[in-house]
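User: Please run a holo structure prediction.
Assistant: Happy to. Please share the sequence and the ligand.
User: Here you go; the ligand is adenosine-5'-diphosphate.
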Amino acid sequence: MIAFPNAKINIGLNITERRADGYHNLETIFYPINITDALEIVPANELSFEASGLGIPGQVEDNLCIKGYHLLKADFDLPPVKIHLHKHIPIGAGLGGGSSDAAFFFKLMNKEFSLNLSNEQMRDYVRVLGADCAFFIEGKPVYAFEKGDQFEPVDLDLSVYHLVLVMPPAHVSTAEAYRGVKPQPSERSLKELVSLPVGDWKQYIRNDFETSIFKNHPVIRGVKSALYEAGALYACMSGSGASVFGVFKERPDLSALEKDNQVFYNV
Ligand SMILES: C[C@@](CO)(OP(=O)(O)O)[C@H](O)COP(=O)(O)OP(=O)(O)OC[C@H]1O[C@@H](n2ccc(N)nc2=O)[C@H](O)[C@@H]1O
Ligand SMILES: Nc1ncnc2c1ncn2[C@@H]1O[C@H](COP(=O)(O)OP(=O)(O)O)[C@@H](O)[C@H]1O
């Protein structure tokens, strides 16, 4: 059985306070985009994992699909599976690729072995693997709050726009990103701001990670400026970076950016 785990972007991200457990409370809008991996599971005699496409850092045991298998195996009498992941979503990009693989792994296992898990149950499982994993179970646009793992639906449809995603040659770790931010309560909730016309977002919607990340990685700031110069209505770094997206009325000419960056059109 095969599935195509998709990426997300964050439209705005406010880090509002540091929590007693060392994590941070935040608010953001998760919006699904059409850049995908391919993930296949096949019942087998022993558990195995193989990957193709982009190289995934870390050991196989650390892959969120394998971690997901062990999590589920603790509660269900599961046979072994052969897992194949074709990696296409840029890594360390703020696109949640690994988190999406974990969520889609649960959805595949649920179907393949008729486990009858509800979406809520699958969300509870994958929350353990990463704060943004639970979003990918349904993958509909949401306002996310607390650790970024609690959601409310938002009515947001950007399909009339041309969304561009640019991955610069930079890598930002999530932990590095959080270390650089001084949490501050937001004046106006993103839930309210995102319902403004897209043309007004530039004035009101920010990503709190940008200040410190842009200081350490000026190439990312350069990409954001280039997207505005090319006519973006709104441009923002996604999550903890390094990718940056732009919302355009029409497909822009970004050939100058294509030389040094990976550019995805109409995501
Ligand atoms: C920044 C965001 C925003 O969407 O996404 P990405 O840019 O990674 O996609 C998320 O908060 C990332 O979520 P996720 O990647 O699942 O984070 P986790 O693996 O749970 O945590 C990695 C590390 O980030 C920090 N962390 C994460 C979430 C949070 N609310 N507060 C934190 O302080 C902690 O130091 C933690 O050890
Ligand atoms: N299936 C997976 N795909 C990608 N990365 C994974 C996966 N499982 C675990 N990881 C680990 O998670 C880290 C961050 O992955 P990713 O989710 O792509 O980035 P981001 O959090 O920036 O969106 C990687 O460096 C890798 O070590």
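The chain has ten helices and twelve strands.
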